[in-house]
Design brief:
It is a single chain. This protein is mainly α and about 280 residues long. The chain folds into 2 domains: about 120 residues, no CATH class; about 110 residues. Strand 1 and strand 2 form a beta hairpin. The radius of gyration is 20 Å and the shape is globular.
């Protein structure tokens, strides 16, 4: 029995070492492929319109910015969802991008508009105009950031996953990521609904992030189409989210749009036109 346990422990150690090496190599995409992913996310989040790069959706406690509608909380309204805009600013700064002076603080400041009403009344604010110019100029960098978030997600997920389930999570991740369209599906979903490891990002103990979608996928012999199976599992996770959500949030109104988005992962071949 002791020998068997040792062999299992050794296998897991070697498997995790392999994963670490694979993660270190990164997801290899050309600049054209990264930009294509960015354009699809921009289409999903902003209907490909620059005027939608800065919005504050009704019923939400945060501003959404950029091609990925990265979340930015006001100081008086911290929400449970990950503040991805600040992470993008950190990435932009380390990449050498020039950030608007009023925004370039240490640490980065909270959103200066305290509510949706405050934001809507401040449309002539010069800071908003400068912010929009910054977001238009950095679209390619935002696309790279979105893919980078995907690259970094697997180690975080495995760390939060029981040992017996790690092999499945990793194998499903790489199974979907084995094609360019699969990478798009994974990257878009991470940007769209997160990794799924934050304790606050669940309702009644059930999350809806990438980890939960990978957990819900069937094995290859039962579902050979990896991206199609990913889309099916994502639909189920989102349905569970709405079912378990607080009634006051009325999340049912968003479900059809969310499902249209994840169903699009299996309908992208016609849009896959990369310039050499």
């Amino acid at each position: 029995m002791l020998k068997i346990r040792f062999q299992i422990a050794l296998f897991l150690a070697l498997f995790l070492a392999f994963l670490a090496e694979a993660a270190a190599q990164g997801i290899l995409l050309s600049p054209q492929e990264v930009n294509w992913i960015g354009e699809r996310v921009f289409e999903n989040e902003c209907a490909s319109k620059d005027e939608n790069l800065i919005v504050w959706n009704e019923g939400e406690n945060f501003m959404s910015l950029g091609i990925g509608h990265f979340i930015w909380h006001p100081a008086n309204g911290k929400d449970s969802f990950e503040e991805s805009f600040v992470k993008f600013l950190e990435y932009a700064k380390t990449s050498g991008e020039k950030i608007p002076h009023w925004l370039d603080t240490t640490p980065f400041s909270a959103c200066p508009w305290s509510s949706r009403e405050h934001f809507l009344s401040a449309q002539s604010d010069s800071r908003l105009m400068e912010l929009k110019d910054f977001l238009i100029k950095t679209k390619p960098l935002q696309a790279t950031f979105i893919v980078r978030r995907l690259e970094e997600s697997l180690p975080f997920m495995l760390e939060k996953t029981p040992e017996v389930a790690r092999e499945k999570i990793a194998s499903q991740f790489y199974r979907v990521a084995s094609t360019f369209l699969g990478v798009y599906a994974l990257a878009d979903y991470v940007n769209f609904k997160g990794i799924g490891i934050a304790p606050s990002e669940n309702y009644q103990g059930k999350g809806w992030g990438l980890l939960q979608v990978l957990e819900g996928m069937r094995e290859e012999n039962g579902a050979p189409d990896a991206v199609g199976e990913f889309s099916r599992s994502a639909n189920a996770a989102l349905e569970d989210r709405v079912k378990n959500s607080p009634s006051g949030r009325n999340e049912q109104k968003w479900l059809s749009g969310w499902q249209k988005r994840v169903n699009s992962y299996i309908k992208q071949e016609g849009k896959l036109c990369l310039q050499e």
